[in-house]
Specification:
Number of helices: 6
Radius of gyration: 20 Å
Order of helices and strands: HHHHHH
Number of strands: 0
Strand content: under 5%
Structural class: mainly alpha
Distance between the termini: 53 Å
Shape: globular
Length: 192
């Protein structure tokens, strides 16, 4: 567990450095006195660990919401003409909202500048919808092609997961760029 926390915090520190590059800010270690650099590096460690702990809390909330949704779907399954449709309609918005909220929090915390919610919501909704669609496509691949092909299905599944991770990282950086454009347009639009 400690190894996972350390690895995740390193990942988020590197993501913050990548977002610094997107926003064209200097790296933390480049400028300032030794005291300022040590303070900034310590704050980066703390911030990345807080992001990881918040992500774990969000995963726990997601687990509870999915369990409640399945319980409600099981209750509605016995009703005539509602059945599977009700469970599907209950199960779709919850992951979409949680993923969108996760992207919004990432877009608020990763850039080196403070952003308002109005700068983040468009990118979070687009990235959340794209994440949900690609995750559902990954599940469909597992249902239709994953079981019957033996070793080839496993290799294809690994390649598909790698492709999905590539797409997710591109979504994250696209969303960061979109947040930057919206924030700059908002600040330029506010000037007379």
């Amino acid at each position: 567990m400690v190894g996972l926390l350390v690895t995740a915090s390193v990942l988020f520190r590197h993501l913050r450095l990548s977002f610094r590059a997107i926003w064209k800010h200097e790296a933390v270690l480049v400028s300032g006195s030794v005291r300022d650099v040590v303070r900034a590096v310590f704050l980066e460690y703390v911030r990345s660990n807080v992001i990881v702990l918040f992500g774990g809390l969000l995963l726990l909330v997601a687990l509870v919401l999915v369990a409640v949704t399945q319980w409600l779907g099981g209750l509605l399954l016995h009703l005539p003409r509602i059945g599977d449709t009700a469970e599907w309609l209950l199960a779709l918005p919850i992951p979409l909202m949680l993923v969108t909220l996760t992207f919004a929090v990432l877009f608020m915390s990763l850039p080196p500048v403070r952003l308002a919610w109005r700068h983040v919501w468009l990118a979070a909704v687009i990235c959340g919808a794209a994440w949900t669609i690609t995750a559902e496509r990954l599940v469909l691949y597992g249902v239709f092609f994953g079981a019957g092909l033996g070793g080839y299905g496993a290799i294809g599944g690994i390649l598909l997961v790698m492709l999905w991770l590539n797409l997710v990282s591109q979504l994250l950086f696209f969303g960061g760029e979109l947040c930057k454009v919206v924030a700059r347009h908002d600040t330029l639009g506010a000037r007379p």
